[in-house]
Amino acid sequence: MAQMSHRAAMLLLLVAAVLSVTAAASAASSRSNPHPLDPLTPEEVTAVRAAVLASPLVPARPLTFHYVGLDEPDKADVLAYAYGGTGTGGLSSRPPLPRRALVVARAGGQSHELRVDIASNGTSATVLSHAVHRGAGFPILTLEEQFAAVALPPAYPPFVDSVRRRGVDMDDVLCAVFPVGWFGGGGAGAGAPKRVAKMLCFVAGPTANFYARPIEGVTMVVDLDAMAIVGYRDRVTYPVPKAEGTDYRAGKTGPPLAGLQPAPGVAVQPEGRGFHIDGHVVRWANWEFHVGFDMRAGTVISLASVHDADAGTRRRVLYRGFVSEVFVPYMDPVEEWYYRTFLDAGEYGLGLWAFPLQPGADCPANAAYFDGSYAGQDGKPVSGENRICVFERYAGDVAWRHTEAGFPARLITEVRPDVTLVVRMVVSPGNYDYILDWEFKTSGSIKFVVSLTGLLEVKGTSYTHADELTVDAHGSLVSENTLAIYHDHYVTYHLDLDIDGTNNSFVKNIITARRNTGDPATGGADTPRRSYWTVRREVAETESDGQADVNAGPADLLFVNPGKKTRMGHEVGYRLIPSGATAASVLADDDCPQRRASYTKKQVWVTPYSKAEKWASGLYADQSTGADSLTAWSRRNRGIRDEDIVLWYTLGLHHIPYQEDFPVMPTLSGGFELRPSNFFERNPILRIRPPSPHGASANCSCYSR
């Protein structure tokens, strides 16, 4: 939920302008051989902008840039480049692939899609194709138009009067832009929806937590193309919650808690970092992968492969993966709340709302950083420093161990410590902060962890004590006059798995209970045992078979390569292991927010690979109808057995707020793991070195007194 005071907005616009000049000026004039999946450089963004503005295909002005991103080459070409056509080995030395950009722009009241070819020197570009979007939905909201919109209310007389009647100082007011969602209708032509948004306002005063102090009951509608307020309603008046006890800044929360502070510590690596970064390619232990940045998806991980020490070769695991959408519907049906059904990636852009990571806090001292540049509304590059960090995690965990006491007079203990590599981004699209981790393990696993923290979105109310709530208030009373509204979080990942090759299948190993019949012919035995369970294997043939509710019953969900087998005859594969946060949506199927994000009814969807199918909510998510979405694509029921397939996994959480979540929420995490399952011939980390006999490790604690 975007927010900005008028003064802060102007300051940020100035900073963005300076950064864009700096980014363009710092672009190197000479280009090394770029990886085909590298994000666009500031130099390339500048060239794309010039080509679009010079093209006669979009003569209307003003023209605003809403998305500029890499239009990646065809997958077959990237694989040939990366692996030399063999599926193994390191990066090829073949010539670079063509660099192209996808641009979504607004001009003349229309959304335009342009594909732009970038010259090999990166300093010029040519528009290859142009199309006008005729369907429902609009592109990502730009930061600049949100800043411009929130500057309107202080000069709008009805709002000024509402603020005055509530006894609020206008200088303390900050406003936010909220997408309107979709509630029927839509499409192009006469009567098509306008590109509008809602605006709500808050009172900051002495606190930084202005979200805790809403001006409840006042709603404005802003036409983003005309940049004018076109609707206003002051429906009801509630007390503005007090500022006391809402701030979260150091020095504003009271004295530090004596005796509850953990001793300070820092990770120390005497031999330096254990990973190597070459451009955007990271190599660590047995892993190699590419790190990219996208203004909508944020972090993009590509070409993840693991070295099989026993086989002496590098083996593919993941072609490309990223967060496709974040759906956050709130559960209050009243006028000021019913439309708060956010699609954070498609409406706001996760990359746009990723801010600089704080060394030593967001990421440990041993971290390295990637920047994340993007195109501003004017098409000029805006630099984004320290948007992604990479670090080795020494958490005191165990990779494997065993103690054997079965030998007389002898105790055998073997323990191997677990060290992992984390790729992290933090996204703050308004009140919430999402910590998005990719964690690579030497065992061959990849863990995906989403951690929620930040500020609750609250509603002003007359209630001051829970005993006063006699009807459904749609939330929890967390402070006087402050209701934290029930809501959901659904984070959907797009994971193009390439398990030891391109063609894979989706397998459900369903745990099935059996009675012991005593007949060996049916799997029984003549023993006192009465029951047991076994496995029923189902291979998904089509997309309808590829959907799964992980809470429906015990099962292992695997992605296998039917063309590759271990020496024992098993298909090589990886299995999906949920780790908390497995909620699915309980909204009615005919509710418009659910129709837009109907894929949240199940955690697992499997589709055939399509370069065009990247965004679960569609390319144009703002006011989308669900017609272009993961669910809509899957209705074609295409074949997925022994095909190039994509896993879409949705991590879900029903959030009932509690008082401990206020004024700032302690981190709450959930995730899932992709774990080798008959991928290796044996434990791939059997031969890792034991720890030093003296107990020394790379994780040292430094104390101050």
What does this entry look like structurally?
The protein folds into three domains: 28-132, Roll (Nuclear Transport Factor 2, Chain: A); 143-249, Nuclear Transport Factor 2, Chain: A (Roll); 275-400 and 419-696, Copper amine oxidase, catalytic domain (Beta-galactosidase, Chain A, domain 5, Distorted Sandwich), CATH 2.70.98. By secondary structure, it is mainly beta. Helices cover 11% and strands 37% of the residues. Strands 16-19-20-21-22-33-30-29-27-28 form a ten-stranded antiparallel sheet, with no helix packed on it. Strand 17 (374-375) and strand 18 form a beta hairpin. It contains eight helices and 33 strands. Helix 1 runs antiparallel to helix 4 (143-150). Mean pLDDT is 92; it is low at 2-30, 86-92 and 696-705.
CATH class of the largest domain: Mainly Beta
CATH 4th-level superfamily of the largest domain: Copper amine oxidase, catalytic domain
Number of domain modules:
3
> In which range does the helix fraction lie?
10-25%
Beta-strand fraction estimate = 35-45%
Measured distance between first and last alpha carbons: 42 Å
Principal-axis shape equals globular
Q: What fold name stands as the CATH topology of the largest domain?
A: Beta-galactosidase, Chain A, domain 5
Structural class: mainly beta
Runs with pLDDT <50, length 5+? Answer: 2-30, 86-92, 696-705
The profile of the biggest β sheet is: 10 strands, antiparallel
CATH architectural designation of the largest domain: Distorted Sandwich
Number of helices: 8
Roughly what is the average pLDDT, rounded to an integer? 92
Q: What order do the strands of the largest sheet run in, or round the barrel if closed? A: 16-19-20-21-22-33-30-29-27-28
- Rg (C-alpha, Å): 27 Å
Instruction: Please count the beta strands (DSSP E, at least 2 residues each).
Output: 33
